[in-house]
Specification:
Layout: E1 5-11, H1 17-30, E2 36-39, H2 45-56, H3 62-86, E3 90-94, H4 97-106, H5 111-121, E4 127-132, H6 135-145, H7 156-168, E5 174-178, H8 183-201
Parallel strand pairs: 1-3, 1-4, 2-3, 4-5
Helix pairs in contact: 2-3, 4-5, 4-7
This protein binds thymidine-5'-diphosphate.
Residues 13, 40-41, 54, 69, 94-95, 99-100, 103-104, 150, 153 line the site of thymidine-5'-diphosphate (TYD).
Length: 203
């Protein structure tokens, strides 16, 4: 069985990646594909602990937070992502380890070390779609959609640091998408990048 491909959606809060992920999944299904849609933090025990912390407004030590994201990802890779890739599927993941590089890097940890440790341990994406948007615009979208707020991460100085680390990333398979445009225009760029990645992988 030919190995599938891993496509990761990344960017600051409110960048529109989740909307684009849903659109892409629909368009792949319309073309007869059966993508696996997933996200980090997960709905598992570590992911639930992370969300409860982010919503409480009470941050834990950055090292503790880092350990939780790694545990969550370990379980997610082992139980969900790797089996799907081995079954030949296209995996669409809303965030993965580059979020840890950017967010926990913005919490003051060593971003380069997080990247090196992650690349050594986890499935490397075939394609990373990085949705770029000004942090003010991202937070305005987060506010507009309402719902539960996550004050630990969703504040401007923090999002500015996260955006700066995302902007500095240089990893294989990274495609930057200007997310400050109409949904349709963004979706066209997403599809073009994904079609190219599928073609490259022969998947
Ligand atoms: P998010 O994708 O926004 O999930 P939800 O839509 O359920 O809120 O992720 C939650 C927050 O966690 C977001 O602010 C980014 C942050 N995060 C990290 O700090 N490190 C990580 O490794 C990941 C995956 C997410």
């Amino acid at each position: 069985m030919k190995r599938g491909i891993l496509i990761v959606f990344e960017g600051i809060d409110g960048c529109g990646k989740s909307t684009q992920l849903r659109r892409l999944a629909e368009s792949l299904r319309a073309r007869g594909r059966d993508p696996l849609v997933t996200r980090e933090p997960t709905e598992g025990p570590w992911g639930r602990r992370i969300r409860a912390m982010a919503r409480s407004g009470e941050a834990v030590e950055p090292e503790t937070e880092l350990a939780w994201f790694f545990e969550d990802r370990r379980q997610h890779m082992r139980e969900v992502v790797t089996p799907a890739l081995e079954a030949g599927r296209i995996v669409l993941s809303d965030r993965s380890y580059l979020s840890t590089v950017a967010y926990q890097g913005a919490r003051g940890l060593d971003a380069e070390k997080i990247l090196a440790d992650s690349e050594a341990e986890f499935e490397r994406p075939d394609l990373v779609l990085l949705f770029e948007l000004h942090p003010e615009a991202g937070l305005a979208r987060v506010d507009a959609r309402g719902g539960t707020s996550e004050p630990v991460f969703e504040n401007l100085p923090f999002q500015e640091r996260v955006a700066a680390i995302f902007a500095s990333l240089d990893v294989p398979g990274l495609v930057r998408i200007d997310a400050d445009r109409a949904e349709e225009a963004i979706a066209r760029d997403v599809e073009a990048a994904v079609d190219a990645a599928i073609e490259r992988a022969g998947a």
